[in-house]
User: Fold this.
Amino acid sequence: MKDNDLNLLPALNILLEERNVARAAKRMNLSQSAMSRTLARLRATMNDPLLVRAGRGLVPSPRALEIQARVSRLTLDAEAILKPATPLDIAGIERTFTLVASDGFMESIGGELVKRVAAQAPGIRIRFLPRAASQGNGLRDGSVDIETGKLKATTHPELLVRRLFDDRFIGVVSKDHPLSNTKVTLSKYLDGRHIGVFRDNQNNCHLESMLSKPERLLTIQAVVGSYTGAVALARATGCIATVPARHTASFCQEMHRFPLPFDVPAITVSMFWHPRMNADQAHRWLREKIIEISAEL
Assistant:
């Protein structure tokens, strides 16, 4: 490390962005000859041509293409670290934040979040996206600011995590369902017709995961892609939906809810973000709003 000149990093980033020595020199406030000498130093240091002449322009080498995203992130991180902290005027910020969240988050937290943001920071716009199949990819490439959900073995290890709340699974049926007037035993639960939920491109539905060794096979009448969809079908069909209580609370207000007749571990819903956004004051303010609302559930 002591032999490497880290001052070359911003120059490398600009050269890879511009792919033109003259334009890179202008952005760096250098002469074109000085920029050419910098490119030569980079080539010698990295033992790679980086930018190769093609006709009248320059094209990146395979190595340059491989490292360009990393160089950009490192440069942004360094600029964020060295930038003087200034007081946050949240009311005057004009910015859009992208959140990946489930329908349950939208229902339980999203509405209140939008209201508080509108009241305190009217220039902030929140763009909600449905949950991604692979957690954290949008956070890594910068297309997503915050993601909520369960921590998994496949969650990218560099992401920062904050627990929001714990949830437990319950059974839900329509008000006129036979199970609404009796204690639900395991036998009665297994006898019913069920709505299954596929989650995160898994090959089995959540009920099969919960009951790895049921006394007998469940009758799964239909399978949907969300817990809120399972509640809607249970309301319409007379089937049983097994769903997280907090996640679906407002959807179940006209339904009969009952504790499951078997043990299911609670699930922890967390918030994820990339380390490069950790010191961003507006991003931190939004995270604090989400934590604040989650604590009130």
About this structure: The domain at 91-162+271-295 is CATH 3.40.190.10 (D-Maltodextrin-Binding Protein; domain 2). The chain has a mean pLDDT of 87. DSSP finds ten helices and twelve strands in the chain. The radius of gyration is 26 Å.
